[in-house]
Input
Amino acid sequence: MFKTGVIRGSIKSPTVRKSARFQIWERLDKGESLKSIKENPPLMQNGVATKDSNIDIEHYQWDVWSKL
Output
């Protein structure tokens, strides 16, 4: 699993456990597919479902961060 708050390259891993970003990274780390996350997106702190475009961005950042 990723360590919170670690900077690799220019990407910092998420630190706030309740954030949608943290939940996306956690689910990706557990091996969940991008398609599955988009079908059941995490809620942002304001209660709105995370948009597909934001999930794509987080997936890209997680992928790059994981390879560094």
Q: What stands out?
A: The chain has one domain: 7-67.
